[in-house]
Amino acid sequence: MKVFGIAGWSGSGKTTLLEKLIPALTARGLKVSVIKHAHHGFDIDKPGKDSYRHREAGASEVMLACGTRWALMHECRDEPEPQLADLLTRLAPCDLVLVEGFKQEPVPKLEVHRPASGKPPLFAERDDIVAVASDEAIAATIPVLPLNDIAAVADFIVDHCQLKV
């Protein structure tokens, strides 16, 4: 599996880019998975549901399954936060894993940067950012891609990861 990150400040448009990028990549015949890092706690379960009650009772893992999907919830409790490498081992084989967040992990990344946000670019500080997608022309020593040109972003990722499409 190839791993490629999408990084940027909160509100920069990472999720929106991924939402458009995934169908562009799958249309090329690639099997794509995503790992997203959440800075704050989250819960995909609902209080009162059986699975929630199982976790609250102390189960370390609860798996939900139906005819269209399954989900595994693992409670960390006294364990440290999982690292990206550990999470990657839990995914089924695919061609490409897109990673949203995990800024500090040393995987090649595309930064989503919007100068109007007033936030400094990350690519100036990180050598694992191999390209930047922006809604404005910016000066950089790495490739700058138009944020709204999804085909160009997809082409860059396919080429950088040396994926066969």
Automatic annotation (TrEMBL):
Superkingdom field: Bacteria
A Pfam match: MobB
Coiled coil: none
UniProt xrefs under Gene3D superfamilies: P-loop containing nucleotide triphosphate hydrolases
Annotated ranges, domain Molybdopterin-guanine dinucleotide biosynthesis protein B (MobB): 3-135
InterPro entries for the chain: MGD_biosynthesis_adapter, MobB_dom, P-loop_NTPase
PANTHER family, alphabetized: MOLYBDOPTERIN-GUANINE DINUCLEOTIDE BIOSYNTHESIS ADAPTER PROTEIN, MOLYBDOPTERIN-GUANINE DINUCLEOTIDE BIOSYNTHESIS ADAPTER PROTEIN-RELATED
Descriptive protein name: Molybdopterin-guanine dinucleotide biosynthesis protein B
